[in-house]
Each structure stands twice: as C-alpha cells, then as structure tokens.
C-alpha cells in the first residue's frame, strides 16, 4: 500500500462514520472493504490482460473511461447556498490544530522534494 491509499483509508473511515448510524457502520464498512479487496485481487489481472491486448496505454485509457462514466452518472449539481463572508487565511492558521497540520505538510513536502 502507498501513502495515498493510507490517507484514503483514513478518510473513508471518517466518511462512513459521518454518513451511517453506529448500527450500520460494520455492514457498510465490510461492503466497502470487500470491494477494495476485490479490486486488489482482480485489478492486476485485468490490467495485464488489457496490456496484452492494446499495449501500455489501454489499461490507463480504460480506467479513465470508467471513471468518466461513473462521474457522469453520479454527478449532482451543487445546491445553492447562502452567500457568506470569506474567511482570511491568517484567521484559519491561527487555529493551533490547523497551524500544526499546515506546518507538518510543509516540512514533509520540503523533505520529499530534496530527496528526489
């Protein structure tokens, strides 16, 4: 697993906890996790088969077409919200937790750039 999928997994748990009642969370999380496991098992085989058929580009084009189709089907226009005043960035950064997270991102990002 990569660091991206680790972040996605943490966000997934937060989203499920927010959207579903405690009595439903186990069932929903099991469904989501079984889908991810199925993708890890079947995905490389399908990707290899697509590579054999159409070369290096076909697996990526297939995934792009699949994602575009799902996005088109699942798109819902945003609801109109009342206008509100913009919050200045410095006001947000004065919140200690946000400032710590922002500092951590900057530090980790700067170390990643220097090692490339």
> Helix- and strand-based class?
mainly alpha
Domain count: the total is 1
If helices are DSSP runs of H or I spanning 4 or more residues, what is the number of helices? 5
Alpha-carbon distance between the two ends:
20 Å
Roughly how many Å is the radius of gyration? Answer: 20 Å
Describe the structure.
Helices cover 80% and strands 0% of the residues. With 116 residues, it is mostly helical. The protein has one domain. Helix 2 runs antiparallel to helix 3 (57-74). The radius of gyration is 20 Å and the shape is extended. The model has no long low-confidence stretch (mean pLDDT 83).
Secondary-structure map:
Elements: H1 3-19, H2 22-54, H3 57-74, H4 89-93, H5 96-115
Helix pairs in contact: 2-3
Compact summary:
The protein has 116 residues and is mainly α.
Note the main attributes of this structure:
about 80% helix
């Amino acid at each position: 697993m990569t660091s991206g999928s680790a972040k996605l997994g943490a966000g997934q748990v937060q989203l499920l906890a927010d959207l579903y009642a405690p009595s439903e969370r186990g069932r929903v999380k099991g469904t989501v996790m079984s889908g991810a496991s199925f993708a890890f098992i079947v995905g490389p085989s399908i990707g290899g088969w697509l590579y054999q058929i159409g070369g290096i580009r076909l697996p990526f084009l297939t995934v792009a077409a699949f994602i575009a189709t799902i996005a088109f089907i699942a798109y819902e226009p945003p609801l109109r919200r009342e206008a509100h005043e913009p919050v200045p960035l410095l006001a947000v950064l004065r919140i200690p937790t946000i400032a710590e997270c922002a500092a951590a991102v900057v530090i980790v990002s700067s170390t990643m750039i220097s090692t490339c």
